[in-house]
């Protein structure tokens, strides 16, 4: 975790999302026994909308299903 935070804080990858959004602040962390699972979870979360990300930051995992419901242009659920 410390290494990843250091990489983001010091913009070691100029192409990264956080490079131009420094300073960074760690707001969420999850432990994994397997690096493959950790990478898969990180990729999944990167594709989530802001509301879902904010829900896990607050620890409100139970809200994820309702925040996953898509709405069409008229605002109706699909």
Short synopsis of the structure:
The chain is built from four helices and no strands. It is an all-alpha fold and 78 residues long. It is globular and about 40 Å long.
What gross morphology would you assign?
globular
Return the domain count. 2
- Low-confidence stretches are none
Radius of gyration: 15 Å
- Helix/strand-derived category reads mainly alpha
Mean pLDDT across residues? 89
- Count the E strands: 0
Q: Beta fraction of the residues?
A: under 5%
Order of helices and strands: HHHH
**Distance from first to last alpha carbon:** 38 Å
How many helical elements? Answer: 4
How much helical structure, as a percent, in the residues?
40-55%
> How is the biggest beta sheet arranged?
none
Describe this structure as you would to a colleague.
By secondary structure, the protein is mainly α. It has two domains: 29 residues, no CATH class; 41 residues, no CATH class. It is globular. It starts with a helix and ends in an 11-residue tail after the last helix. 0% of the residues are buried. The model has no long low-confidence stretch (mean pLDDT 89).
């Amino acid at each position: 975790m410390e290494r990843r935070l250091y990489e983001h804080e010091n913009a070691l990858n100029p192409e990264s999302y956080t490079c131009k959004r420094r300073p960074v602040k760690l707001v969420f962390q999850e432990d994994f026994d397997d690096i493959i699972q950790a990478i898969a979870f990180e990729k999944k979360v990167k594709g989530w909308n802001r509301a879902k990300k904010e829900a896990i930051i607050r620890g409100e995992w139970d809200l994820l299903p309702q925040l996953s419901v898509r709405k069409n242009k008229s605002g109706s659920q699909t």
